[in-house]
Amino acid sequence: MTYEKFKGIIPAFYACYDDQGNISQERVKALARYLLAKGVKGVYVGGSSGECIYQSVAERKAVLEAVMEEVGGKLTVIAHVACNNTKDSCELAAHAESLHVDAIASIPPIYFHLPPEAVAKYWNDISAAAPHTPFIIYNIPQLAGTALNLSLLRMMKKNPNLLGVKNSSMPVQDIQMWHDENVFVFNGPDEQLLSGLAAGAGAGIGGTYAIMPELYMGIFHCYQTGDNEKGRILQNECCRIIYKACEPDCNMYAVMKEVLRLQGAPDIGDVRMPLSGLNEKGKECAKAVAAMISDAKQNLL
Hints:
Blueprint: E1 9-11, H1 25-38, E2 42-45, H2 57-71, E3 76-80, H3 86-98, E4 103-106, H4 116-129, E5 135-139, H5 141-144, H6 150-156, E6 162-167, H7 172-180, E7 184-187, H8 193-199, E8 203-206, H9 213-225, H10 228-245, H11 252-262, H12 280-300
Parallel strand pairs: 1-8, 2-3, 3-4, 4-5, 5-6, 6-7, 7-8
Helix pairs in contact: 1-2, 2-3, 3-4, 4-6, 8-9, 9-10, 10-12, 11-12
């Protein structure tokens, strides 16, 4: 299995709604065009940043169809297909394969704590629904409630379609462990892209990449060229921006969508309830975040 198409900076794709809060395929396409023009490697569609757990199967299909229509074959497209039941997850996996995505991904089932064998069966059933598409484990234990471990990973390595792990747990050691198992690793926590690459990750997928792709592509380039001091400076600045974006008493994704608007990017609406929408404090925070990003691009790149 070739990894080259997956190496680089892959923004997690934000949910795009119209002014009434419905999925807007036109706004999906506009965001896809915007990210393509930024020079990123690909997009990760239907994950946490895409508010997947608050969308129906039909809505998630519509989003992926719009992305593929706009940038399929131009960007690497990874479709997160997990729902909290096997049937719907397999339906989304088969649909993603029919659109010729580059890979599918899945968190483990949430809420009930299942034994490892049941988690592996869930993932393998999803993979079997898309038998010609690489499969990525999405490890985000702080939200899913189930953590990947070596035993479970080794069960999954029996699946010939396993590409690797999107690792969003905070310990960098986890990346080192998965890398030592000879699977491809995507760094998940945006705050540790540089250290994740050093631990063995070959790419990054992140929820704040879309508002400052230039900074993350700079970190990736610094790691590749061995300029670790500049990479550290860029990483530290990204962390400062992330901490600022997390300040307001509202959802971070609402702030980031406002940052995009302030940057002249397409308007992709607000977040979906029960997530908290943008408030006045969030608007002020977004202005500060946009200014920090502008300064960083001007002074550090």
